[in-house]
Amino acid sequence: MDAKAERLALFRYGLVAPLVLETLPHGELTRRAREIASRSYQIPDSTRTMVSVDTLLAWAARYRTGGFAALAPKARQDRGCSRALTPQLAELIERLKRENPHRTGATLLRELALAADPAAPAISASTLYRFLKSRGLTARQLLAPPPHKKFAAERSNQIWQSDILSGPYVQRAGGGKLQAFLHAILDDASRLIPHAEFYAHQGLDAFLDCLRQAVAARGLPVRLYVDNAKVYRGQQLARIAASLGILVVHTPPYQPEGRGKIERFFRSVRAQFLANLDRKQPLTLAGLNERLWAWLDQAYHRTAHSALGTTPLLRWQQDIAQIRQLPAATELRRLFFHRLQRLVRRDCTFLLANRFYEAPPHLAGVTIEVRFDPLDASTVELYAQGVAQGTARLVDPVLNSQRPTVKPGAPAAVAPTGINYVELLRQAPAEPGAGEPGNEADQQEEER
After folding, report:
1. Quick one: DSSP state of residue 118?
2. Structural domains in the chain?
3. Contact criterion met (CB below 8 Å) for 222 and 206
4. Contact 244/157 with Cβ under 8 angstroms?
5. What is the pLDDT of residues 91-149, one digit of tens each?
6. Burial 29-56 (b: 16+ CB within 10 A, else e)
7. pTM of the entire structure?
8. Beta strands at 223-226 and 247-250: parallel, antiparallel or unpaired
9. Distance in angstroms (rounded) separating the CA atoms of residues 6 and 71
């Protein structure tokens, strides 16, 4: 799918993920769909802001049948068919009702009759009432108070939380110092840490590497709670999460709901780990991570948690039979490859991360998609219009100078057609007053 279709498919996945990633009890599917439909959204490439319950359920059915790819837009099959309510009128009714839930059906009918096109067919009361009830737009449905429940995951890997902690300064490989940043992922139900690691920066590359190692070690979560930082907002994370069947939840600013437990974990990191580091001994980034993992494995995971009554490791293992694992054939590392567009130059090279790579000769002048691991760009895969085109290699000017230039071979012989413009004119009978076809066009071309 192209970038535009992928944007819309990711938007749809973000809405229906709560409906398809878990087995829901009777009635819960409809309740969740109505809750999602009650909000307004910025729909990609559209001026609409609302999504109906029926649309959400249809998208969910398509996802169950065909996966993420089935959420891409396709041509409508019902174009030209008459309906009791046009989409524009249905949207207007929904906006009017949400604007004032106390509007009665009779009031809506009067307002629509005055505001609508006089030539448009009238709407019956029964049609309007059925529409309001099916969309969850009755006064009782709209004015019902939202349920208030304590936030807690029921089982391991149902919810993961992620955040970043500014760490200490460590020795740089080439001399000097750099600040380390701790990327950590915590399981909500067990408080276990699927993976945590100090990196030299706070960027997306570091977070995705942390997430990849967490999935490889502890399986797949259902939801991943993160904040609204720019690092978590890119399409790269959205595409990877959709491919793995993970719903990324962005918590609002200054409202750490869904991430409170990882903030409590960071307090433990400061008090129990960072405060006890030997400051007299210079540390590298690798040395800092070696000590972090020893503390996690030997102390944190094996110490009873007051809210659990057991250790994080034992609590996580209680649900191990229900944890989603990656299929055996899945190449996890390739799922996390970055994807960028690049134009291959006439010399068959393109620039990636300030380094020149060489593509196969047939891709010269073609815009391609490059897929690679940002932390290890030794393998760069090439795609053109979704079709694999092999891999690229780093340009080696010295090696290229030693290779003979391969000239393209002569074109394959083609059987003669026997058609010749001059001979055809010679054999054709002359017509009085008729000019040769194309003369006027040839003269105009010469004048230009």
Report:
1. T
2. 3-75+82-143 (no CATH), 159-322 (3.30.420.10), 337-402 (2.40.50)
3. no
4. no
5. 888 888 999 989 888 888 888 888 776 666 778 888 888 888 888 888 888 887 655 45
6. beebbbebbbeeeebeeeeeebbbbeeb
7. 0.59
8. parallel
9. 9
